[in-house]
Amino acid sequence: MKKILILSCLVFFNFISVAQFETDIKNFIVKAVNEKKTANTKDILTTLFRAGINNLLGEKKEFAFSSSFYGIDSIFRGTGAYSKNYSNERILRSNSFNLIIKGDSSNNIAEIGGAFTLTLINKKDIEYTKISELNMFKVRQSVDMFAEVRKDVNMAIVVKKLAPASQLQASWTAADAAHDYTLLDSLIIAELQNIITDNTRRAAILVKINSTMPNNKLKDVELVNFVQSYVNGKDQFDDQVQAIIESYARKPLLTFSPSFAYNRQDKQAVYATDVKFTVGLGKNYNKKPWEVEAIASIKIANDTSVKSTNYDNKPLAISLGVNKVLIENSNKESKMEFKFFTQYDYQLGKVPAGKDAGVFTLNSTFRVNVYKSLWLPLTLKYDPDNDNFLGVFSITANLGD
Amino acid sequence: MKTITISGNFSGSVNRYVRLDVYRPNPSAYDLSKSYDNDFTEVITDLNDNAEYFIDLTGATFGDFELEISGEFTDDTITANFHKTGFKPGYAITTNQ
C-alpha cells in the first residue's frame, strides 16, 4: 500500500499528459464548452474532469479527482459530438463525483473518500439555457441587419461588374472568421460608406429589415451605427453575441457536496459536507469579471488526541471572498486570477486546552494558467491573532474548459 | 435546372436561429430568403444551369453550428462549423452546365 500516493501522482501526471492533447480529446469527447467560466468556478463544478494535488510541497499531500457525470457519459458514448437531446443532459453536466486520497508525511494513504457535488442553482451554462426574448430579439434584428446590408452591398458591386461574387464572398468569410472587418475588400468598404451617406438606399434596406418585425421597427440611426461599426473594422453582431454569453457566465452557481471518507490510521469514518456559492459581478462585459464566493463546510471526524474511536472533532468553516480575473487571452478566456477571502473556523466539538474555538484568517489564492488546462494555484493563509503564515501550493488540471 | 442542398445543424444550443439567403442579380435574378429556428435542410431545385449564385448564412450559436452545401455546382461540397459565435459566412457557387 505504501507509496500509493505516488501512484496517484502518476495518475495525475498521466492525466496532465492527456490534457496536453486537449484538441484531440475534445474532438473525441466533446468540443470546447464554457470557456468564459473562471478557473475558480471550474474548481467548484468541473465541466468534464478535474485532477489536482493539493499541498504539493507540504508533508501531507492530497490527491483529488472529479468527474462530471457528463464526462463519464461522454467516454462511453464516444461519438465525438454533443447529443441531439443536449438539453436533457443538464443533470449529467450539473453533477459530479469526487475521489479524494489524503496522504501522511510518509506518503502512505491516510484517508480515502468519495463525494458528490450536486448543483442546486446553475445559471451559467448558456448551452442549455433559453435566452431571454429581449436578447433573442437583438440577435434576430442583427442577423437581419447584417444579411440585408451584405446582400445590398454584394448586388451593387456585382451589377456594376467591379468584382466577381467569389472575391466578395471570400472577403466577407475571411473577415467573419477573424472577427476583423478591417480585412474587408475595399470595394465592400466603399459600398458600406455609401449606405451611410445615401438616405434613399438606407430607407430601402430598412423597409426589408422591418418587414420581418413590424412591431419593433429598427431606427435609421441604429442602422447607420451598425454599418459604421463594420466600416470601422468592428464586428458589432458578434460583440453582441459575446456579451450575451459573458452575461450568462456571470450568473450564480450554488452547489452542495456531501462526502464520506475512511481514515485508515484512525480506522473510522469521516463525514463532511459543504455548500458553495459564486456569482459574477458587473454589467460591463468588456471588463474582466469579478466574482463573489461564499463557502460553508462542516466535518465530523476523529479527535486524534483521544486514542479510542470518537467523533469529537467537528470543525465548521465559513468563508467569504472575491475572485478577480487578472489576465484574459484574446478569446476572453481566463489565464490568471487572484482571490481574496476571509475565513472563520470554529470548533463545534471538543476544543483542546489552551486553544481558541474560533480562528479568523485572511487568505488569498493566486492562480496562473501555465498551459492549456493546467493551473498552478498558490494559497496563502494568514492568522492575524497568532501571526501565523501558511502557504499551500497546488496543481490542477481541469479538462473541458 | 440544377439542385443544391443546404443543411445546418445546431448542437449544444437551445437557441438556434439562422437566416439563409441565396441570390443573384439580373439576368435571371434570384432571391431566396428564409429564417429557421432549428436544424434545417433546404433543397433548392430551381437554379439555372451554369449560373453564379451568392449563398449567405447569418446566425448565432451558443453551442455549435455545422453547415454543409452540396449539389450540382462546380466546386466540392462546402462544409464549415462555428462555435459560440455569431457567424456570417458567404459563399459563391457556379452551377454545373
Would you write up a description of this structure?
The complex is a heterodimer of chains A (401) and B (97). With 401 residues, chain A is an alpha+beta fold. Chain A has 11 helices and 13 strands. Chain A has helices at residues 4-20, 22-28, 39-44, 69-77, 90-94, 133-159, 165-178, 186-197, 199-212, 220-231, 236-249; strands at residues 49-54, 62-68, 95-103, 109-122, 253-263, 268-281, 290-300, 315-328, 334-347, 358-371, 374-383, 388-393, 395-399. A 12-stranded antiparallel β-barrel of chain A has the order 1-2-3-4-5-6-7-8-9-10-11-13. In chain A, β8 (315-328) and β9 form a beta hairpin. Chain A is elongated and about 95 Å long. The relative contact order of chain A is 0.14. Chain B is mainly β. In chain B, 0% of the residues lie in helices and 71% in strands. Chain B has no helices and 7 strands. Chain B has strands at 2-11, 16-24, 30-36, 40-47, 52-71, 78-87, 90-94. In chain B, strands 1, 2, 3, 4, 5, 6 and 7 form a 7-stranded antiparallel sheet that branches. In chain B, a hairpin with a 6-residue loop joins β5 (52-71) and β6. Classes of the chains: A alpha+beta (401), B mainly beta (97).
Q: Could you give the count of β-strands of chain A? A: 13
The order of strands across the largest sheet of chain A is: 1-2-3-4-5-6-7-8-9-10-11-13
Based on CA inertia axes, which overall geometry of chain A fits? elongated
- Structural class by SSE content of chain B: mainly beta
Helix segment tally of chain B: 0
Brief account:
Chain A has 401 residues and is α+β, with helices and mostly antiparallel strands.
Summarize the SSE layout with pairings:
The complex is a heterodimer of chains A (401) and B (97).
Chain A (H helix, E strand, L loop, with lengths): L3 H17 L1 H7 L10 H6 L4 E6 L7 E7 H9 L12 H5 E9 L5 E14 L10 H27 L5 H14 L7 H12 L1 H14 L7 H12 L4 H14 L3 E11 L4 E14 L8 E11 L14 E14 L5 E14 L10 E14 L2 E10 L4 E6 L1 E5 L2
Antiparallel strand pairs in A: 1-2, 1-13, 2-3, 3-4, 4-5, 5-6, 6-7, 7-8, 8-9, 9-10, 10-11, 11-12, 11-13
Helix pairs in contact in A: 6-8, 6-9, 6-11, 8-10
Chain B lengths: L1 E10 L4 E9 L5 E7 L3 E8 L4 E20 L6 E10 L2 E5 L3
Antiparallel strand pairs in B: 1-4, 1-5, 2-3, 2-5, 5-6, 5-7
